[in-house]
Amino acid sequence: MTVSTSAPRTAEAGERQAHVVVIGAGLSGIAAAVKLRRAGITDVLVLEKADRVGGTWRENTYPGCAVDIPSPVYAFSFRPNPGWSRLFAGQAELLAYIEDTVAASGLGDALRLRTELTEAAWSQERRRWLLRTNRGRFAARHVVFATGLLHEPRIPAVPGLEGFPGEVFHSARWNHGVDLTGKRVAVVGTGCSAVQIVPEIQPVVGHLDVFQRTASWVLPRPDFPVPAAVRRLFRRVPAARRLFGGVCGAALAVLALLMRRAGTARLLNPVGRLVLRRQVRDPVLRARLTPGFTVGCKRLLLSSTYLPALTRANVRLIPHALAAVEGSRLVSAGGDRTEADVIVFGSGFELRLPPVAARIRGRDGRPLSETWDAARPEAYRATTVPGCPNAYLLLGPNIVTYHSLLALAEAQLDYVTEAIKAAEARGIDALEIRREPFRAFNDAVQRSLTSSVHNNGGCRSFYLDDEGNNFVTWPWSIRRLRSELARFDIENYATTSAEK
């Protein structure tokens, strides 16, 4: 559908304009800027609230922080890295890689650091996104929201926490000024961050309590240093690097295939039990660490050192959530009591309603967070939303699968780039996904997820909302995801063109 309307009103005084504005300079935001420029869309600005790029790899600096998928598939497609020092690279190496990519790609002129978005509102009159920031106003024809999934730390509301006399911080806001040597430390949560933190701090703390609300499956992480000779081979023979990366990608694809059905995912349960038997000899502790659900129902954890760390003499697993804080005393939901000097929350991030959703106002002026809160987070092909023309969400609802999030974002960027190019070529001012294809797509997603291990594996995970709808994971294959995003299907979009 094409609607011809009068030309948009001109810019307001003091307003900086760009054809495309990208919000966020993490991995997906940097990928957006580079891929847009390479496609010939050069009028691009990137707004970043912090004073440096890096996203989650800038924010997360806790001990042991590293990727949980192989490094060869965790790299920009346009700038592969033959020099990873380990199969699972650490935070500092990843941050350096991102910063080097920015420098090598010449993105300095596009970056606007220390510029935080406070509101993005669609102007139907001007057919522009009007962006308010702490450093003035911007206007853009198209906006790419690349604010990431792991952005807003979540700390549970624990009665009495405000009265705790010691240090309290989230894993994503690690306080490096606190010396943990000899301290009584409590780690709250046993997710991906916690399984990396616990083995790192266990040797130095005096005593470590780990609060575990629900046991999770932990499988070994096959990490190892990449020999210098292999790194030289990857530099000199790119085909060898591509082959190794292909093997890593194929392994992830197989894992994703297993997770599409609870019945096939259950085949991994014996592997998880075997790992527990070998790494945890104490039958009581092992029972507390054995999940009552299928592997993959909750996010699968990879670590070869976490379970052994829990067996050390200075560590106690408390198999309950933290329920209350009474001064320096911590009380679990099971009645366990312990004293602590430091509390570290490894309690994850706000996924259902990320902060940026409250700052996006579409045609009707309502925040996207209100729309999502009234129903559930949804997007067409994880990317576009009705009522928000010319707006694109990277790593939006229902895109997560066992693969590199960067690779998924790059697949979306192929779609976004084609959308912007199509609008330019056809003289289109606004592209908006129509409600019929939007609804059909999301209904198909939910139907296909009913048999997945995430929905049907016997647990209650952060993948599900209060009604049991899965708003996080992709139900089909990686190949299908890439296929659906390879072509911009303009026939499913309402379009608005300027008068000639």
From TrEMBL:
Record EC number: 1.14.13.-
GO molecular function annotations of the record: oxidoreductase activity
Statement: the UniProt record of this protein carries the keyword Transport: no
Pfam families named in the record: Pyr_redox_3
Keyword presence, Phosphoprotein: no
Signal peptide coordinates: none
Keywords linked to the UniProt accession: Oxidoreductase
SUPFAM superfamilies found in the cross-reference section: FAD/NAD(P)-binding domain
Superkingdom of the source species: Bacteria
Protein name according to UniProt: NAD(P)/FAD-dependent oxidoreductase
Organism whose genome encodes this protein: Streptomyces johnsoniae
